[in-house]
Input
Amino acid sequence: MHEKATDPLTEFRSVNVEGTLNLANQAAKAGVRRFVYLSSIKVNGEKTLPGRPFAERDVPAPLDPYGVSKHEAEEGLRKLAQQTGMEVVIIRPPLVYGKEVKANFLNMMRWLYKGVPLPFGAIHNRRSLVALDNLVDFIVVCLDHPAAANQTFLVSDGEDTSTTELLRRMAIALNVPTRLLPVPQKLLEVGFKMVGKNDLAQRLCGSLQVDIAKSCTVLDWKPLISVDEGLRRTAEYFLRSRG
Output
């Protein structure tokens, strides 16, 4: 979010590629049958067009150093699987929320809780999220499901929301009034770009949807909890942690 390294790609490769492949190689030598890798939807790209959610079959198009390093790790794991026979399962989640959530999601919760008026009342994007509980449940399924071997999956809550809708539902979970100003989305995007916050504009105003049809049909999986329940659990932890 606030990259300070002079060479971010080298730093990300050190952990996401070299670290991952080192661990996977040791796992293969130790006789581990299956290696489950938590990648990122950033391997697919940063945004989707209306009605065109990301899918596993899409050609990877990572745009930032983090996404590039995750993609390289995936490629390395696939080669290792071919060389050693160890099964590899790759999972690409979108934004994960839940207990101890950080970054923009946490900031939005803090703003809502404090009653700060936010200019996000007229955003009509569509974004996929995944609650921590759903992600963990999906990982557990991938550990031993026969059909998961050497496959790549996308995962989400199975329900996409706009930023405006998400904030309203988050406010309900926090039991606070919603103070969202209906600033036109285009005006917001221009404002963010003027202050050099293009990435933030994309996260708040752009769309990023994932298609989880493969995950549901191949693995006979469905999200364990709803978005509203995920937000309720996130808000519950947030409020409890404030003492």
Remarks:
- Residues 3 and 119 are 26 Å apart (CA to CA).
- The beta strands are 34-38, 87-92, 95-97, 129-131, 152-154.
- The chain has one domain: 8-241.
